[in-house]
Design brief:
Length: 51
Amino acid sequence: MGKKREIPLEIDDHFKLFGKEPWEVDYGEKCAICNVRIDEYGFCSCGSGGE
Ligand SMILES: [Zn+2]
């Protein structure tokens, strides 16, 4: 705690969606389709989750 909030909460969609900031999410392997890392919720840019 005590970390400076860099994104105003009102526009921080990631925080509203996941309850934590992007840099606090644990990322796993990259998606084979969009080449974006899949986060701990199984989401990536294309939404396939690597399927
Ligand atoms: Zn993807």
